[in-house]
Every structure is written in structure tokens, then in C-alpha cells.
Recover the amino acids of this structure.
């Protein structure tokens, strides 16, 4: 199961009651943070997330509201005793940006590996058994959306194993996908498992204009986390010029991608009560939540 927490929901600058948009994803005792704007480490502490679990950071783009909190977070990681490697992924040029930020935290007790993902194309890597994919978005500078897919093992069927006379000591090995040979008979995993299970998919899309291929990237998400600067459609054109979306476009994306849930985030600081637009977006996509900071879910 994957624990997902939306650490903040703001765009552009942190507010007293709204931290900047950032995602905490935890699986198997390890955590991956996506984006780290000013104050993100305070929000992590407020939501009682364990910084010591963090081993990977993804950066969508190098606008300050998505990266300027990094030096403070790295110093706090050092203070909490981290000594193992931290990986940071981002767009072409992220190495230079992070080295600039590291000027103010030059001595850290852990190694940092910075990985520039392939430019202008979708690519994937594995983090903690989860397939992480990056997709170029359409913002005012280079920016990635990220998806996280956990492929799940089929359910183990003890009745099948018992019927075949397989000793319990082999069950775990078989459920892990390995065949075993017992009395010269080869037992394959499919002989002792029941129905297959669909993967768990989380998709994080900010900052971007709406474009049709977004739906393919977000296809069949269990949880789509997507930006919306304003709730009112009168801002569509102005936001398009700035490289952003409004709530109704995010709702449309959730419909077009066949997503199961939508969490809106990255609100303009000028939007004082985003929740007042929740019913409006639910008329487009019924499973919409106009998120608050700390919105969380466990996906099983
Ligand atoms: Zn932003
Ligand atoms: Zn931006």
C-alpha cells in the first residue's frame, strides 16, 4: 500500500494557512518527495511525516515555489542523522541549479546524486519497486509531470497450494514470483495464485497548460493530483498565457484520463477560498476534492 500526503496546496508563495504544493509518497518505509518550495520542511513536520524515511526527491521545475526550500530541507536531513545517499531527479539543467543551492549548505553528512532525466520525452525509472515516469509539460519553463505505478503481485491462493501438497515453507518464494521444484515437479507461481490485481497509479501534474496528451499520461490514475490556479473559468485565457490551468480543466482531465479521484492543488495566493468551487468541479468530475494542506490517503 502507498501512503500519499499532499503537503501543501499553494502556488507562487507560501501563505500563513497554505504551504506550497508538494507531494509526499511513502511505500515500504521509504519516502519520495516531489517538489520542495519555501517552507516545505515545516509542512512535513506539521503533518508528522518522518524525514528520516526520505531517500528521493523529484523536482518538477526550477521555479522558486517548487525548489527554493531545498537547502533548508537538506540541512534538516543532515541534522536528523541521514548518512545514506539521497537521489534528486529533475529536468536537464537541474545539476547546475542544485549545485548553486548547495553553496549555502556545503557540508552535508550524506552523498547527493543528481539525475537529469531525458529531455523532451517521457522516461521511467524504478524507485522502491514503483515505476516512476516523467513527462514534459507545457509551462513557461521546462517542467515535468510525474506518475507513480506500483504493479501488485496476484493474490496468493493457499487452497491451491494445499491441494498441490506444497509445504508452507515454499509459499513466500512462490508468491514472490519464483518457481520451485518439489519431488522433481516444477511448481510455477501461477499455479498457486488467484486473480491478478490492477496496479496502483498516482499522477502529479503541475505546472502546465492543458493539452490533450496529458490524459494519456494520467490514464487510469487511482489518484490524479493536478494544478488549478483559479476556480472561475473567466481566468482560462489569462492562465493559459502564464502556463497554468483552472479547476474546470483539471476536472476535464480527470474525466478524459478515466481517473478515479482528483485532488486539486497549486492555488493562486489571490484565491482565498478554493473550496467554494468544489461543487462546480464535481459537476464535471464527481470524485473531485479541492484539497487542503495535509490531504492524505492510503491506496491499497
Ligand atoms: Zn508553481
Ligand atoms: Zn512554475
Amino acid at each position: 500500500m502507498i501512503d500519499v500526503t499532499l503537503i501543501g496546496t499553494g502556488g507562487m508563495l507560501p501563505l500563513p494557512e497554505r504551504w506550497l504544493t508538494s507531494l509526499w509518497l511513502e511505500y515500504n518505509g521509504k519516502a519520495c518527495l516531489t517538489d520542495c518550495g519555501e517552507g516545505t520542511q515545516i509542512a512535513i513536520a506539521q503533518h508528522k511525516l518522518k524525514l528520516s524515511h526520505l531517500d528521493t526527491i523529484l523536482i518538477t521545475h526550477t521555479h522558486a515555489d517548487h525548489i527554493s526550500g531545498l537547502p533548508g530541507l537538506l540541512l534538516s536531513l543532515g541534522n536528523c542523522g541521514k548518512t545514506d545517499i539521497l537521489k534528486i531527479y529533475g529536468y536537464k539543467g537541474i545539476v547546475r541549479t542544485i549545485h548553486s543551492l548547495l553553496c549555502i549548505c556545503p557540508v552535508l553528512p550524506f552523498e547527493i546524486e543528481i539525475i537529469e532525466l531525458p529531455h523532451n520525452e517521457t522516461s521511467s525509472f524504478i524507485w522502491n519497486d514503483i515505476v516512476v515516469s516523467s513527462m514534459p509539460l507545457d509551462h513557461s519553463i521546462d517542467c515535468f509531470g510525474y506518475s507513480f505505478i506500483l504493479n501488485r503481485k496476484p493474490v496468493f491462493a493457499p487452497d491451491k497450494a494445499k491441494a498441490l501438497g506444497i509445504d508452507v515453507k515454499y509459499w513466500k518464494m512462490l508468491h514472490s514470483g519464483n518457481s520451485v521444484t518439489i519431488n522433481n515437479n516444477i511448481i510455477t507461481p501461477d499455479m498457486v495464485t488467484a486473480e491478478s490485481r490492477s496496479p496502483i497509479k498516482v499522477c502529479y501534474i503541475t505546472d502546465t497548460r492543458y493539452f490533450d496528451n496529458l490524459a494519456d499520461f494520467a490514464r487510469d490514475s487511482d489518484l490524479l493530483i493536478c494544478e488549478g490556479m483559479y476556480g472561475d473559468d473567466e481566468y482560462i485565457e489569462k492562465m493559459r498565457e502564464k502556463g497554468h490551468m483552472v479547476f474546470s480543466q483539471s476536472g476535464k482531465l480527470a474525466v478524459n484520463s478515466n481517473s478515479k479521484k482528483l485532488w486539486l492543488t497549486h492555488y493562486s495566493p489571490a484565491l482565498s477560498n478554493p473550496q467554494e468551487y468544489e461543487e462546480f468541479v464535481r459537476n464535471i468530475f464527481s470524485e473531485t476534492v479541492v484539497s487542503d494542506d495535509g490531504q492524505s490517503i492510503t491506496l491499497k
In short: Residues 158-191 form one domain. The pocket of zinc ion (ligand 2) is lined by residues 61, 63, 139, 207 (CB under 6 Å). The chain is about 20% helix and 25% strand.
